[in-house]
Amino acid sequence: MNESQRISANLGQLHVVGDKQRGPFRRDRVFDFLVPNITERVDTSGSTILYLEDVNVAFDGFKAINDLNFYVEKGELRCLIGANGAGKTTMMDIITGKTRPDSGIVLFGNNLDLVEESESDIALAGIGRKFQKPTVFEQLNVFENLELSMADNKSIWWTLRCKLNSEQVDRIHHIASLIGLPDQLASMAGSLSHGQKQWLEIGMLLMQEPILLLVDEPVAGMTHQEMEKTGELLTSLAGNHTVVVVEHDMEFVRSIAKRVTVLHQGSVLAEGSMDDIQNNSDVRRVYLGE
Hints:
The protein has twelve helices and ten strands. The chain is of the alpha/beta class. The strands form two sheets. Strands 6-7-8-3-9-10 form a six-stranded mixed beta sheet, sandwiched between helices. A four-stranded antiparallel beta sheet has the order 2-1-4-5, with helices on one face.
């Protein structure tokens, strides 16, 4: 290395070190308070709220998702069915950032690339997910469960000093009425029935003001009456929210679905009304066992 090359190399090292030393004063740094909130970055002006195209995921050579194309319209209630291993859970993992696809496009709204976002940022952007088994704070009452789930500052200092205003209290009462638990606000969550715990968890998601709700087998283990109430709840949410329901109970799916998507081996096998699906020969062969 000649002298001029050595000087250039040293200058390059000094530039890097200098940038590290300047820290927040670096010219290429964007201050955190100038970065738009992720909820403000989501453009939901279009008709399609969720967009998956040519998505692939393989685990140890097994193709869990295979050239998947899946689109959901804003305000829609979509039911997703398929046999075990069809790719339903993996698809939801992709949407929520738990699993990264090997290839393909995954967009929320017109512009948010979910492949590039963390799980926490995806949740903040307006995607809520409810798993099959309800997860509520059983040692707290219903009001406290809804309060803790409120979309707001969750710092330790805020939590210790916060005092609910009248608007927030009204919202808790509104959500409690929506999920059918207005008379259980003072009841411990652990004392609720299985169905009531499911509704409470849906309410906890609603407190976070989601745009899209992913609901996994909401009526598993419910009584017939609880299933009816759950169907009414999910149907009432459509329009103000977009709801994707994964369910195996065909009677329940028929009671709520306007549009059904069938997954098979990681791809969309069929899509349409419940009548279309039940009359589809491919679906009857691979899913209904005929």
